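Practice problem: HD domain-containing protein
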Amino acid sequence: MTTDLDMAAGVKVPATTLAREATELIRDTTSELIYHHSRRVYFFGGLRGRERDLSFDPELLYLGAMFHDVGLNEAFHASGHRFEVDSANEAKRFLQAHGVPEDSVRRVWTAIALHTTPGIPEFMEPEVALVTAGVEYDVLGIGYGDLSAEEREAVVALHPRPDFKNRILRAFTDGIRSKPETTFGNVKADVLEHFVPGFERGDFVRTILDSPWTE
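Answer key — structure tokens:
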């Protein structure tokens, strides 16, 4: 049953067994910071979808939002994969274990894997587009004025964000500092450049010029 803790600004968390078990899993295995952020991503993604008049599956959007940062957990620090891929793979395992159809699994996997790759998700399925839209709204403030102050306040009242900017940057840094090579060509290189002394970001031009090809 949907409770007051599962609705904000008219957007409801799906009242399904799958959503409930995903909520419990993420709450038990991630920090309070990531839990509240992930829930806000769902609500803001749902609001952006409503504002854009997009037809989307709320359950798939919720699952994408809830799992999108689980790859920052310490268990994945030595994986050698981008944290987005670790997050997507964890969601895939969870969904397949619950017998979710493969097309739905693919949508959730793609939504998570691409959530830090701007300029692509917005042209894909609504669930893929809206996970990124929710992340961009909560982390970067992209489209901030497209939602009303009342809508924002309703979500933040349910899932507060004290010192969120600094805390999420620390979480990103802690989650990827042990595998800096995975930030080549993506926005997380900016995080390590700011917060990890001695980090040297990969250079696409030098990679081409220094390749084993003679010309």
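Discussion: The mean pLDDT is 96. Students who identified this feature from the tokens alone can consider the problem solved.
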